[in-house]
């Protein structure tokens, strides 16, 4: 729809006051925007402590005080001119900018839509206060104060009532201001923060905290105790931070925070890349909490693409998404699923190699050469000989391993007792093997002397024909046998108790109902479903050799601590907890 032109107008330069209010519309969306811009200026000024006060959600008052370097009289006055900044001097410096308030728009934009005062001193005793009313400078006078800066913003948008009308409730604006402070506190654990809302003390974090301590202070202990560290580097990128344990991910209530070189930003595609690192480890629909700081060369990221600096542009978008996904997957692979330790996971570290070496596990024997190998049938031998172990390239078993309740595998490690759920463990093993088969490999099927006949519905027969290659890749060779019956000439062989006909029937029924959705995730869902149905079950009695071989294969996977549903496969009971229970430790 085109609006009619009521009268011809000549092009004219906008008055400074109007231009400032337009700039304010880009930079200052709500009181939380004021808080963000002012706190970032404090951090750029080298502040070690920042105090934020608001009233009625910041609509009547926002005050930010710091102990940074402060300014002299001339700089304080000049800082209120548009595009006045100490952060850059040329356009070339916009590439690789490392400071926050580099545009020089925030202070004049805020001052143009509020009753504004700036009190500052670059040395104790000699200071200046500048007062601005709706963009018009009213007063500049000397004051006595300590080094640092205090910016007071009153009656935001008082002279733009249309903008003020769109502000939300006091409670909503207060939450947004609080969240802005928490985000910046997370980005700068070396800086102390305090936040007051309507003269109520809401948040305090001392300076020089570790990142783990700052996370507890901002996100709370309950959430932070579900996080594991992320540290990963590849291709010129480095990702560090924390990711939530898969078992603790939920459909709602998650928190996500992204930083690039310590600068908070938003990027849904990077969040999705991080979630892809959880693939096959969480339930569909679960959303894990994430704190990730992406470290790149300053010249490889453009932070000047959004008026409020909330978005960035990476030179190598595909590369950074791949590294973020790999970083999360690597962190989950190194995860130690501790239980009952009473200690936080935040800040704990355990390398993937420590899982793969599986300390304390009797590393002897191989449970077949793949999910469909003819050699994968297990014997009831209680032990392997030293020569057998040497042939497998593994150490001889030294630790006893027990099966309890025909469900859990228990053994001693250097740090305590390890308990493994046999069904979940075998699920993880089979899932990763099947994914390799579906994406390029092929299972070695066990050919049957007597084919097994399976009767299907018309829809299921169509599914067999449509997905014949997928079924064949995991070891099911099905041929028409007349009518609605197919003959299974070969089947996978994941373990001796495997009911091939039942598994085939259930998989084909799921395919016929379209259970696996779009092709993007179909193979993963197919593999997860197969793994769940083909794995040994709770209640299956395993021989000692089966137990040892299952543990060995589990710790060779990329994500041993979790099955395909996000549940834990491994629980550790630390020796410290055992000693506490028996009164041997305080």
Structural overview:
This protein is of the alpha+beta class and 586 residues long. It has four domains: 16-205, Heat Shock Protein 90 (2-Layer Sandwich), CATH 3.30.565; 211-333, Ribosomal Protein S5, domain 2, CATH 3.30.230; 352-425 and 540-581, 2-Layer Sandwich (formyl-coa transferase, domain 3); 440-534, Ribosomal Protein S8, Chain: A, domain 1, CATH 3.30.1370. It has 19 helices and 22 strands. The protein has an eight-stranded mixed β-sheet with strand order 5-4-3-6-2-1-7-8. A hairpin with a 3-residue loop joins strand 17 (408-412) and strand 18 (416-421). It is elongated, with a radius of gyration of 31 Å.
- In DSSP terms (H or I, runs of 4 or more residues), the helix count works out at 19
Oligomer: single chain
- Our Rg estimate from Cα atoms comes to 31 Å
How are the strands ordered across the major sheet? Answer: 5-4-3-6-2-1-7-8
